[in-house]
Design goal:
A: 190 residues, mainly alpha, Rna Polymerase Sigma Factor, Chain: A, Arc Repressor Mutant, subunit A, B: 165 residues, 2 domains, disordered C terminus, binds zinc ion
C-alpha cells in the first residue's frame, strides 16, 4: 500500500495524529488555492478549515483514482467558488470567460507607476495576479507553486486540458505585459 | 526578413519543458535575434517570480485546532446519519398514512362486527362500530401531521447541512 493509502486508512480508523499529518502536508496547497481565490482575509482561515473538515467527512469516499492532493484541491476550489457565488463576488459569466473580457484587461491604458525596484516586483506581481479572472489565478498558482500538470489542474477546475493550457498561456502573457506596461520592469528584467 | 521568430506561446512551451523544438535551435536563434531574446528574458524572469513562496500563512496551530474538533466532527456525522433514519421512518409512516386514508373503515367495522361482535351486548357492539368508523376523520389529521413532520425534517436537514456544499 502507498504512503497515502496507509495515511488514509489510519485516519479512517480514527487516528487523530494521522489526520494532523494530512493537514500539515496539504496546508500549503489548500492555502494557495484559498488565498488566491478569497479576497477577504478573515474568511480565508474559515474556508481552509471547511476544506479539511470536508476532507475528513468524505475521506471514506476517496477512491484513489486521483491523487489525494488533486482531490483535496478540488474540494478547496469548489468551496471557494461556492463562497464567491454566495457573496455575489462571482457570476457564471466570470467562469465562462468572454473573449472581450481579456481585451478589456489588456486595454487599460494606465500611466506607468514610478519605476519599481527589484524587491517590489513580487508585490506588484501579486497585485496583478489578483486582477486576473479567478480561473487564471488558480491555474497559474497550481502550475507554478504546486507543480501540477495540465491534466491534474483540469480535474480540479473541471476543464479540458486544452483549456487549462490556453488559460495558462494567456494568464502569463497578461502578467508579463502588465508588469512591463504598468511598472516598467524591463530595466530589471534585461 | 524571412526570419522565423519564436511566438510567445513557443517560448512559454519551451520554458515549461514541453517544447518539441530543441534547446540548440532556440539558442541559435536567440544569438541573432534581439526581439526574441527580450521576450525570452521577460518570460524567464516572470517564471522565476511565479515560483516564489507568496507567503500565504494559515495560523500556526491550524492543524491542531482542527484535530481537536474531531470528536465534534464525528458527532456531527452521527447526527447526520440519525436524521437520515428519522426521515426514512417518517417517510414510511406518511406512506402508511396515505394508504390508510383511502381505506373505508366503516366497511371493515361492519365486517368485523358481523363475525366477532355477535357474542357482545348490543350497546358494546355499537360503541366499537362507531369508534372504528370515526377513524376515517382521524386518519386525515394523522396523515397531515406526518406530512408536516416530513417537510420540517427535510428543511432542517437542508439548512443544518454543511455550509459550503
Ligand atoms: Zn526572433
Amino acid at each position: 500500500m502507498t504512503e497515502t493509502g496507509k495515511l488514509v486508512k489510519l485516519i479512517l480508523s480514527g487516528d487523530a495524529q494521522a489526520f494532523e499529518t494530512l493537514i500539515e502536508e496539504h496546508k500549503p496547497l489548500v492555502s494557495h488555492v484559498v488565498f488566491r481565490m478569497i479576497p477577504n482575509p478573515q474568511d480565508r482561515e474559515d474556508i481552509s478549515q471547511e476544506v479539511f473538515i470536508k476532507v475528513y467527512q468524505n475521506l471514506s469516499d476517496f477512491r484513489f483514482e486521483a491523487k489525494l492532493s488533486t482531490w483535496i484541491a478540488q474540494i478547496a476550489y469548489n468551496l471557494a467558488i461556492n463562497y464567491l457565488r454566495q457573496k455575489k463576488m462571482i457570476s457564471l459569466d466570470d467562469l465562462e470567460l468572454a473573449d472581450d473580457s481579456e481585451g478589456h484587461l489588456v486595454a487599460e491604458n494606465i500611466q506607468p507607476d514610478k519605476k519599481v525596484e527589484e524587491k517590489d516586483i513580487s508585490q506588484r506581481l501579486k497585485t496583478e495576479i489578483d486582477n486576473l479572472p479567478v480561473q487564471f489565478r488558480v491555474i497559474v498558482t497550481l502550475f507554478h507553486l504546486d507543480q501540477m500538470s495540465y491534466n491534474e489542474i483540469g480535474k480540479i477546475l473541471n476543464l479540458p486540458e486544452g483549456t487549462v493550457k490556453s488559460y495558462l498561456f494567456r494568464a502569463r502573457k497578461l502578467l508579463k505585459d502588465r508588469l512591463l506596461s504598468k511598472y516598467q520592469v524591463e530595466d530589471i528584467w534585461q | 526578413m524571412a526570419v522565423n521568430h519564436w511566438t510567445e506561446e513557443q517560448i512559454q512551451e519551451f520554458l515549461d519543458g514541453k517544447s518539441s523544438i530543441s534547446k540548440n535551435s532556440l539558442e541559435e536563434h536567440l544569438k541573432s535575434c534581439e526581439a526574441c531574446t527580450k521576450s525570452f528574458r521577460y518570460y524567464q524572469n516572470l517564471y522565476s517570480e511565479l515560483i516564489r513562496d507568496p507567503g500565504f500563512k494559515l495560523s500556526t496551530d491550524f492543524a491542531r485546532n482542527l484535530v481537536s474538533r474531531i470528536p465534534q466532527l464525528a458527532q456531527a456525522r452521527a447526527r447526520f446519519k440519525f436524521s437520515d433514519v428519522f426521515i426514512g421512518s417518517v417517510g414510511i409512516a406518511a406512506l402508511l398514512g396515505v394508504m390508510i386514508f383511502f381505506i373505508d373503515f366503516s366497511i371493515i367495522a361492519e365486517t368485523v362486527a358481523k363475525f366477532s361482535f355477535s357474542s357482545l351486548k348490543a350497546d358494546v357492539q355499537d360503541w366499537l362500530r362507531n369508534s372504528l368508523s370515526s377513524l376515517n376523520g382521524g386518519v386525515l389529521l394523522i396523515g397531515s401531521s406526518v406530512l408536516t413532520l416530513l417537510v420540517t425534517a427535510t428543511l432542517d436537514r437542508l439548512l443544518s447541512g454543511p455550509k459550503y456544499r
